[in-house]
Design goal:
Elements lengths: L10 E7 L11 E7 L3 H10 L6 E4 L5 E3 L4 E7 L7 E4 L2 E5 L4 H10 L2 E2 L11 H7 L2 E2 L2 E2 L4 E8 L4 E5 L4 E3 L2 E3 L4 E8 L2 E2 L2 H18 L19 H7 L6 E2 L2 E3 L7 E3 L5 H19 L8 E3 L3
Parallel strand pairs: 2-5, 3-5, 4-20
Antiparallel strand pairs: 1-2, 6-7, 7-15, 8-16, 9-10, 11-12, 11-15, 13-14, 17-18, 18-19
Helix pairs in contact: 2-4
Length: 295
């Protein structure tokens, strides 16, 4: 690290176990975790890091598998840190640590339509921006007007939507920049109508997804014209178990932790699912879950 942390106000945790921060409830320790006190504090902290220091941003720890050996480098924890949200010049503004569900509900209360789908995304605004998360036919970048990012030198940038190239579960963006916040362009509408849509979406999610067990959302992207869950189920993998990890019996594109899973169990099951679907269906599934850390 360059210099010291005398001018930062956030919390530094050393050798911090990451299982408590990931939705799968697995993962080894991070060398260092930083919980920023705000946007400027995060920028100051990033400026103290060595150029070669690996940096990882984490929200709710969904769509993320941390290996059992943990992470060498620094984890920046955004959830419960960067959580400001409000109306700014006719846009809904939300920082990267705001959960997608809270953004959807807040937007509805402001008589805004278009963000209801985000209630079904089990992550934060930062993660949704980074992977262009979506459901029910709408994606995050469909409703983005502009974003705020920070680079590893701690310089904060405000960038227009036109500077990014979003695609299915991916966004092309400047190297070594991370999302801090976004302004969302949402149409005016009726609050009660939006809230009813959110309730219906959450009820469907509860009925179709294994929310009673630790999981990380969809394991694989849907291939063009098909569904990963259908291909996995057609390959006879529903309920298949490795160690404490299981292909959900409720939704085949979800892997659940039965209570004793390791990260290696989950990663092994992901590989087995991909290999089996390729062998039996002739389709190579593309992984949606991001994997970090060491074995």
């Amino acid at each position: 690290m360059q210099g010291n942390l005398l001018f930062t106000q956030g919390e530094v945790l050393l050798n911090e176990p990451l299982a408590r921060y990931t939705s799968w409830r697995v993962g080894g320790p991070a060398d260092r975790m930083y919980i920023p006190a705000g946007l400027e504090d995060l920028a100051t902290f990033l400026h103290t890091l060595e150029e070669a220091e690996p940096i990882y941003f984490m929200g709710l720890g969904s769509n993320l598998l941390v290996r059992d050996g943990g992470v060498r480098g620094t984890i920046i924890l955004m959830h419960n840190a960067l959580t400001d949200m409000g109306m700014v010049q006719n846009h809904v503004y939300a920082e990267a640590g705001v959960t997608c569900s809270k953004l959807a509900k807040f937007s509805a209360r402001q008589d805004r339509h278009g963000a209801e789908f985000m209630a079904g995304i089990p992550g934060t605004v930062g993660g949704a921006l980074a992977m262009n998360a979506g459901c029910h036919g709408t994606e995050t970048w469909d409703v983005v007007a502009r974003v705020m990012t920070v680079d590893r030198r701690g310089v904060i940038h405000t960038r227009d939507k036109s500077e990014f190239i979003p695609s299915y579960r991916h966004v092309e963006m400047p190297a070594e920049e991370w999302f801090l916040a976004a302004w969302f362009s949402l149409a005016e509408g009726d609050a009660s109508e939006a809230e009813q849509k959110i309730k219906a979406l959450l009820a469907k999610r509860l009925a179709t997804q294994p929310l009673n067990l630790p999981n990380a959302g969809s394991t694989f992207r849907n291939p063009a014209g098909d569904y990963a869950a259908r291909l996995i189920e057609a390959s006879g993998l529903k309920g298949h178990t490795i160690g404490g990890a299981q292909v959900s019996e409720k939704h085949a594109n979800f892997i659940v932790n039965l209570g004793s899973s390791t990260a290696l169990d989950i990663e092994s099951l992901i590989k087995h699912m991909r290999d089996t679907v390729l062998e039996k269906q002739g389709v190579e599934l593309q992984q949606e879950v991001k994997v970090i850390g060491e074995y």
